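step: validate -> pass
step: tokenize input -> pass
step: predict -> running
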Amino acid sequence: MTALRYGRVAIALHWLAVPLLVGGFALGLYMTGLPNGIHKLKLYNWHKWAGASFLALSLLRLLWRATHRPPAPVVMPRWQQRAAAGVQAAMYGLFIVVPLLGWAYSSALGYPLVWFGVLPLPDWVPLDRELARAIRPWHEYAAWALALLVVLHVAAAVRHQWVLRDGLLRRMAPWLA
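step: predict -> pass
step: emit ->
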């Protein structure tokens, strides 16, 4: 890793997370409005696979971040540094919380999570329909909160790239290397 850019692994982990996050969120929005049936069940499985994959990737990203120093911060006002750090910390927290809540919801409903139809993952809350009803809105609220933070993150990156022109996006964008 150079002093100005993230390393290749950090960049790859970041951009691998994007389609999982966007796809999982889009599936979540779309599938809930469908009538019950095989198509809805298939999309729920894809949503759960995306969520489990995103959770695993997020844990790997946290491990990588804990063992590899990021580049020096871009010079900006202190409040912007604090806001960026706060948004990033909240996103990382929700990267873990959102899929765990979804997994708990699925477990409480009695629908096992079988990753890509091959690897059965353990239920980590008991079968309990009341618990499932309590968990579902928290999964949705947390997903919407994460979506809002992602929009803020992207808006800030766009502002830095095209308004401030300070090169911040170059740190994580392989196409600007």
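step: describe -> The longest strand covers residues 113-115.
step: cleanup -> pass
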